Amino acid sequence: MAKMLTETEVGEMLGMSPDTLRTWRARGKGPPFAKLEGGVRYDEAAVKAWVEERTVEPGKAEEVQS
To answer: Exposed, middle or buried, 9 (CB in 10 Å: 0-12/13-18/19+)?
Structure first.
């Protein structure tokens, strides 16, 4: 089973507040999440993949998705 993280854990992982994650969810942005009985949870592997997709190599003129 996938390791599921709270928004606080993901916020710490990404260096941002849980409020930012809440705002992103409301705007349809940010890493994928699941609504479970205990609240919102994030699959750790999906969050890491989301970050990887947005990682830009220095010197490359790629447009980064938000």
So the answer is: middle
- The percentage of residues in the chain with a pLDDT greater than 90, rounded to a whole number, is 76
Encoded amino acid at 35, one letter: K
Other beta carbons less than 10 A from residue 16's beta carbon: 14
pTM of the model: 0.81
Residue 53 identity (one-letter amino acid): E
Based on the number of CB atoms within 10 Å of its own CB, is 64 exposed (0-12), middle (13-18) or buried (19 or more)?
Answer: exposed
Torsion (CA) 26, 63, 41, 1 in degrees, nearest 10: 150
Tell me if 22 sits within 8 A of 7, measured CB to CB. yes
